[in-house]
Amino acid sequence: MRYSGFRVIKEALTGHRGWGPAWRDPEPKSDYDFVIIGGGGHGLATAYYLAKEFKQSRIAVLEKGWIGGGNVGRNTTIVRSNYMLDGNEPFYEFSLKLWEGLEQELNYNAMMSQRGIINLMHSDAQRDAYIRRGNAMILNGADAELLSQKQVLEKYPFLNVQNARFPVMGGLLQARAGTARHDAVAWGYARAADQRGVDIIQNCEVTGFRIENGKVLGVETSRGFIGAKKVGACVAGSSSKVMAYAGMRLPIESHVLQAFVSEGLKPVLPGVITFGAGHFYVSQSDKGGLVFGGNIDGYNSYASRGNLPMVEDVMEEAIAMFPMMGRARLLRSWGGIMDMSMDGSPIIDKTHIDGLYFNGGWCYGGFKATPASGFVYAHLLATDTPHKTATEFRLDRFHTGHMIDEKGMGNQPNLH
Amino acid sequence: MIINHPLLGPRDLSEFVYLGDACLMNRPDWQADDALEQFIDYGYTRDNRAGLHRELWYHEQGDRSWLVVTRNTVTHEITQVELARDVARAEGRSK
Ligand SMILES: Cc1cc2nc3c(=O)[nH]c(=O)nc-3n(C[C@H](O)[C@H](O)[C@H](O)COP(=O)(O)OP(=O)(O)OC[C@H]3O[C@@H](n4cnc5c(N)ncnc54)[C@H](O)[C@@H]3O)c2cc1C
């Protein structure tokens, strides 16, 4: 069924009896050409682009819980392409371009809203760094604009720009950045993939690989063995766990990141804004809640909940930036498990096992990457060659020294 | 999370800084034939276990000691806290 304004009116007049499920709930077949492990945004997008762009069939997505229950349904929904390094920026800009056409492509309202992101700057050194990053973005076909303090105040008149320690000197604006409805992205890809024949199999946990003579033959799951010519893992925070079934140790640590939402308020924040003297980002959802977050808690964790010191830290940053936020009540907070890589950048590559591929290491920036990650992973799975925007996301870069360390933090995953 | 410091008793998480897997205490021998491989492994790959995890914490806002904490990464429960110094000595190093 195609969704449209006409359809909404028709259903409204006929008691909404015609909608039907957005995707099937198939039994797993005994074997597939492609098995994607993980029904998060990336796994579902990969399956969709495999079918749509690369004309492949016999594809399954195996999800241990329900689709969208992982990080794709837990993030703070910021979509942007304001990276600096050559290995990253073309990929994220490719992703942003895909976002711009996503809803038409999927026939699904993902509430993509290009409301702009401003990274605030608080020192001369930071201004220089932002100018450099802005130029790198422009060179890669993205948009970037340096705002003065006055221009920032025009958009956000209530910002505390006079903070004695961290005065706001201006900001780096990417006007095409914004937010999208995270669950809808998972559901939109799921529905579109399903319509192209992809089997989305929920409650199906992968518990091992069947590997013979260096070649993968399929996966062991909680619903029995499923054969596959090619297997693509795409499990975000569970990357190390799943790849350990294939005997691999990854350059990844799993960490918990918390997010917060306030009670619903009248519109106060027109766009996304980040605090440059710490790590804090906030936007306002269409329901009115302020959605915000900060750093990861900083220690290895598979518990989808964090601790109080980070809660306090995030609140302090919020109040330093917007004193008025002190009046808003916090409604909810939650956590998600981040696949923090050793250089802060992702990995999309073949493994040393024939037919087994790996996609992970997204740290806390993988939501914005969803369309491009799916596209380039499908490219790799279908053609065995990397897409041109993803040639540097290699698994062996930690051996060869070709790190993509956007923040220059070194091999300390909790600092990326 | 509260870390029960062997010398100072229960201390709040916010006093500590996290480094990572306690395997970082075992720096490879730079003269070994496969020193390069060992250092790549040491620097960049981790077990990253879901479950019991031995890890290094630094008591920065306290006595500046390094601790080896055994913690369950699924529940955050801490079952053992040792001075890293004692752990190294027990392994016959840092005499
Ligand atoms: C609090 C928070 C805020 C964030 N904010 C942003 C942001 O503002 N912008 C941004 O770009 N990114 C953000 N991120 C990061 C982003 O959400 C992730 O990088 C991205 O969602 C990861 O890809 P995914 O959607 O495929 O992951 P997931 O949705 O986690 O998908 C992985 C799936 O694999 C499944 N799985 C795991 N093990 C198995 C198994 N053995 N068998 C079968 N299935 C398995 C899981 O159940 C899960 O559904 C944030 C993350 C969090 C937690």
Describe the structure.
The complex is a heterodimer of chains A (416) and B (95). Chain A is α/β, with parallel strands linked by helices. Chain A contains 10 helices and 18 strands. Chain A is 27% helix and 27% strand. In chain A, the strands form 3 sheets. In chain A, strands 1, 2, 8, 9, 10, 11, 17 and 18 form an 8-stranded mixed β-sheet that branches. In chain A, a hairpin with a 2-residue loop joins strand 10 and strand 11. The longest helix of chain A has 18 residues, at 89-106. Chain A is globular, with a radius of gyration of 21 Å. The mean pLDDT of chain A is 97. Chain B has helices at 35-44, 84-90; strands at 2-5, 9-12, 17-21, 52-58, 66-72, 78-83. Helices cover 18% and strands 35% of the residues of chain B. The longest helix of chain B has 10 residues, at 35-44. Chain B has 95 residues and is α+β, with helices and mostly antiparallel strands. Chain B has a 4-stranded antiparallel β-sheet with strand order 3-4-5-6. Chain B has a two-stranded antiparallel ribbon with strand order 1-2. Chain A binds chain B through residues 240-241, 244, 249-254, 298-303, 307, 309, 342, 398-399, 411-414, and chain B through 1, 12-14, 18-21, 40-41, 43-50, 53, 55, 71, 73-76. The structure holds flavin-adenine dinucleotide. Flavin-adenine dinucleotide is lined by residues 37-43, 62-65, 69-72, 74-78, 205-206, 234-238, 242, 257, 259, 293, 336, 362, 364-368 of chain A.
